[in-house]
Amino acid sequence: MTNLAIIISRKDYRENHVLLDLYTQNSGRIKLLARGAKKFKAKLSSHLEPLSLVEILIIPSKSIDYLASSNTKNYFTGIKNSWSKLETAGKVLNVFSQTVKDNEKEEKLFNYLLLWLNKLDDLEEENCSYLFSLWMIHFLELLGYMPNLKNCQSCQKKLNSGRQYFNFSLGGLLCLDCKNKFSLTNLYQLSENSIKLLRFLANNQEKIIVKKTLIKELDIFLDKYWQYYKN
Length: 231
Ligand SMILES: [Zn+2]
Known about the structure:
Bound molecules: zinc ion
Helix content: 25-40%
Strand content: 15-25%
C-alpha cells in the first residue's frame, strides 16, 4: 500500500543505510530504514531530504520497517531557497516532532502540516512572519489545547478591551477582577493587539500582513503555552 509522507528528519544508519523519521497520512509517525540509501546517493538520497513530501511503499518487518520505494511529490523548493522560510519550517518540525509520538495517527495533523507547508512554500518571503503563530494555534487546536480567548476563565464574564492576562493552568484569559485571585507565576500578559491577532489566526487561513513586533510577541507566548502543555 502506498502512503503519503512528510520527511521530518533523516540520519545515517550503519555504513550505507538511512533512518527516516516520517509523518504519514495513513499510519501517523513512523521510522523507516532506507537500505543502501547512502550508496546510491544521487539516485535515492536526493529523494529523501527532510521537508519533502514523498509517496512511499513500506515493507513491514519485525523490528524496523523498510522503505521499498519512494517517489517525491514536492521538494518545497520555495522553502528550501529561503533562509527565513527554512528557519520557520524548522521551528515547526521541531515542535511537531517533540509533541507527536510514534504511531500516533491523526490524519488532520498530516493534512494541516501539508497545507501549511504549501502556504509557506508559496508566500513571498517578507510576508511569512506570521506563519509560525498560524501553525501553532491550529496545531494546539487539533491537539485539543486551543486557548480560550472569549470569556474570563474564572467568572465567565465577557472580556473588556485592553491588555489581558492569560493563565496557563486554566488555558485562557482572566478579567482584571479575577486575575488578582491567581498566582502571578501562572499569568502571562498579552497586549490587546496580540489577542486580536490570535483570535483572527484561529479563525482564518487568509494572507495577512502584520507588524513583526506583534508576531514576535505571539510567537513567544504560543511557545510558552506549548511548553506548558507538553510537560
Ligand atoms: Zn473574571
